[in-house]
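User: Please predict the structure of the protein below. I'd like the answer in structure-token form so I can feed it into my own downstream comparison script.

Assistant: Understood. Taking the following sequence of 153 residues as input:
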Amino acid sequence: MNVSGMTGAPANAIPSTTTAAASTSSTTSFVPGGSLGENAFLQLLATQLQYQDPLQPQDNTQFVAQLAQFSSLEQMTNVSTQEGQVVSGINSLASQEQLTSAFSLLGNSVTLQDASGTQASGTVSAVQSTANGVMITVNGTEYPVADVQSVSK
């Protein structure tokens, strides 16, 4: 971002009063090498407007370009947020589908192979959803439903 037109400061400098205000602000956090958020962008824009020379104001096209960049930033942030919500919904749907499939196994005989390669067979006596995913109980031992290789009645 170009901050030309500020009196008494180099073209790429931000006044020290702004830096002090940014470091004490509770809504803006500064992380060296981090990315600028919406609040930081607005703070920089307001500082730029505050310190520009009224006799040599910034070119209108540059100001409009900066507003367009802010609009693009806001839209990208919204898309990112919505993408996260879609991914969360898909994960929830997949978990529900896996739970429904596991419930259909209740009372059926299954053959499964666990992560260590050990095979087991037996009747599914319980289904539960845990932090590790959907688990089925066969012969008193819990297994992930994904370990099931075959099902018979």
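That's the full token string. The chain has a mean pLDDT of 76.
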